[in-house]
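Bug report (template v2)

What were you trying to do?
Predict the complex of my protein with pyridoxal-5'-phosphate.

What happened?
Run completed; filing so the output is reviewed.

Input:
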Amino acid sequence: MPLQDPAREHRELREEIDAAVGRVVDSGDFVLGEHVERLEERLADRVGVRHAVGVACGTDALTLTLRALGIGEGDEVITSPFTFFATVEAILHVGARPVFADIRPETCNLDPEAVAAAVTDDSAALIPVHLYGQMADMRSLRAIADRAGLALVEDAAQALGAAQRVPEREGWTRAGELGDAGCFSFFPTKNLGSWGEGGMVVTDDRVLADRVRRLRSHGEAGRGRHVEVGWNSRLHELQAAVLDAKLEKLGEWNGRRRAHAAAYDRALEEIDGVEPPAVRAGNRHVYQQYTVRCRDREAVRERLDAAGVESAVYYPTPCHRQEPLASVGYGKEAFPEAEQAAREVLSIPVFPTMREEERGRVIETLDG
Ligand SMILES: Cc1ncc(COP(=O)(O)O)c(C=O)c1O
């Protein structure tokens, strides 16, 4: 029983994906063609912003955004210590200094009070991470960023389709909508997964979008004229074609993830020692991961392993204690909530094509 199963997703859409891939192959147009452009338009529309720029992966989406915002040496960028290392890599790649703020224990997302306390004269940007598919408290974080004059970049790699009620705004505010930019990943196991790698930057800011567009293609401003040092970081046409076909299903697939999560939530009310993930009031969680907290994680994992049910720990070591950050100087006690989460979290299978009987087997195993 896998944690995620991208192959099954593809079987559900086999004909559409085959046709889309066939069109790319027949066209011979593999680099920044009509499929990338179409996906950019559709994704911007879906998030509710004006511009989207397809790049090679989610890590590059973050890195190019920071560079495009002019963030670099001497700047501090505040983020969560409890995220995938890529968030921090992006900060380090542009030469800035990562500054961490602890998380809220219920959601594992940045604690706005801790963020406010981490702001200094050198702070230049804030990167909230919408962990596991649930948005961080964007209203509070937007207010802090505005007060301190920080760029607000959403790491929405795990949260395409997630949304939040923000009192001053009508309807749902989507992941990627309230930041100065939002960054998505199309890693195969994400809610919208490619056949390899892919990423997207979304923003309302035309200047920012144009600069990311230039950075993804070697800083080229016109044919043969390179005005800055960029990257080779384009979203591939084949990936865009696959993603475009799958985008039709994203809403339905996120709905199925939520239905599985609701069933897990109900079952876990009766199971001792395994806490379901909390959803903050006003949040629409899209369960990129269904992540429980366990009193005795090793015992739970052993039971799951023995029953052939895959599980994973995202993340066993918070970023501030990863080796490349040794010189930044955070100790083991610096972020107690992140440390506790690292000891207790466990992600269990959740994916749109998971069958009810498979979910039942996971629940039975959790129940011991
Ligand atoms: C929170 C977070 N940020 C950034 C990334 C980086 O995305 P990618 O793997 O597409 O480079 C990921 C993906 O795994 C992620 O989960």
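What did the reviewer find?
The pocket of pyridoxal-5'-phosphate is lined by residues 57-59, 83-84, 86-87, 129, 155, 157-158, 185, 187, 197, 199 (CB under 6 Å). The chain has 13 helices and 15 strands.
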